[in-house]
């Protein structure tokens, strides 16, 4: 007797030993159902049912014991298949995301930690680099997603770009700096100041250079660096001035550094980019939706496999 035959036996019992009703529910003929039962009893040399004039009246002691065991076997079988099917539906895979170090620290610390912790079957590979390097990796299909600044200069016919965060670039300087007394700064206030800026591999550098050119300014750039915390540190108790995204204010751990807003500021627009494809995997859709809704709608990150949900 296989698992289907066990189910036949249980159905007969659960339908009051009425072979006609049981056969209807099992979608087999009544003679075939009766044959299955008789064949099993003959092969095992056991009577499972009490009978009278060919009709089933009830279970014998052997039948009652077999019925209890059969239910346990069928339940275990169904549970095993359910677990197998659920396991086959679990999403696994690798996602490669390129994020500039500044944006990773300022905006993506929480979102990436949640994505990683809530999805143990997914491997997240984070590539930290400047915008130009990330753009190149994205074009070479070595990244699934890249977080860049707009304008990303990517071909809109080949790449998708979604705005995540918009803010302004602001000035950071020492509380002892002469400009610290001003409530708000003009770009011309920076014309003769010693500047510490991001280097050419970062889009912020090129945004600022574009602004300076538009204003016909010749900035006095003393330091170029790829480290935002170093740029902040060099302004402490010095004449150096740096220009960084306003959200970095909450990461200033050192007293004595002030933020000053600029009139007609340069916008800092963070975008999520990925190649335009005819098909996106379930994993790619999940990552994009999670990140976009986290920033645009303030929604918390949920696991892709629901059993990991807490």
Automatic annotation (TrEMBL):
Q: Write out the entry's keywords from A to Z.
A: DNA-binding, Transcription, Transcription regulation
Family matches, as Pfam families: HTH_1, LysR_substrate
- Coiled-coil region list: none
Q: Which GO terms describe its molecular function?
A: DNA binding; DNA-binding transcription factor activity
Keyword Cell wall biogenesis/degradation among record annotations: no
Which domain of life, per UniProt? Bacteria
Matching entries from InterPro entries are given as: HTH-type_LysR_regulators, LysR_HTH_N, LysR_subst-bd, WH-like_DNA-bd_sf, WH_DNA-bd_sf
Q: What is this protein called?
A: DNA-binding transcriptional regulator, LysR family
Q: GO CC annotation: what is one?
A: cytosol
**What family is this protein classified in?**
Belongs to the LysR transcriptional regulatory family.
Looking at the record, the residues that make up the HTH lysR-type domain are 1-59
Query: What is the originating organism of this protein?
Result: Proteiniclasticum ruminis
């Amino acid at each position: 007797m296989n698992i289907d035959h066990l189910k036949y036996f249980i159905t007969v019992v659960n339908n009051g030993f009425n072979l006609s009703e049981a056969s209807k529910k099992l979608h087999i003929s009544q003679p075939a159902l009766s044959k299955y039962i008789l064949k099993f009893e003959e092969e095992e040399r056991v009577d499972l049912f009490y009978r009278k004039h060919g009709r089933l009246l009830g279970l014998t002691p052997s039948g009652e014991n077999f019925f209890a065991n059969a239910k346990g076997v069928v339940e275990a079988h169904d549970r095993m298949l359910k677990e197998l099917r659920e396991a086959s539906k679990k999403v696994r895979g690798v996602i490669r995301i390129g994020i500039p170090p500044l944006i990773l620290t300022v905006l993506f610390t929480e979102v990436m930690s949640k994505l990683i912790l809530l999805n143990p079957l997914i491997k997240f590979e984070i590539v930290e680099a400047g915008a130009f390097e990330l753009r190149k990796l994205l074009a070479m299909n070595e990244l699934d997603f890249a977080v860049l600044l707009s304008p990303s200069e990517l071909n809109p016919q080949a790449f998708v770009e979604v705005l995540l965060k918009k803010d302004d670039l602001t000035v950071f300087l020492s509380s002892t700096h002469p400009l610290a007394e001003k409530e708000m700064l003009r770009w011309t206030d920076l014309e003769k100041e010693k500047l510490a800026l991001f280097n050419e591999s970062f889009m912020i550098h090129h945004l600022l250079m574009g602004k300076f050119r538009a204003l016909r300014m010749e900035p006095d750039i003393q330091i170029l660096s790829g480290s935002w915390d170093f740029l902040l540190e060099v302004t402490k108790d010095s004449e150096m001035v740096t220009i960084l995204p306003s959200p970095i204010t909450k990461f200033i751990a050192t007293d004595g550094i002030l933020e000053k807003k600029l009139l007609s500021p340069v916008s800092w627009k963070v975008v999520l980019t990925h190649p335009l494809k005819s098909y996106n995997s379930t994993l790619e859709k999940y990552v994009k939706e999670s990140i976009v809704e986290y920033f645009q709608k303030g929604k918390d990150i949920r696991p892709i496999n629901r059993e990991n949900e807490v």
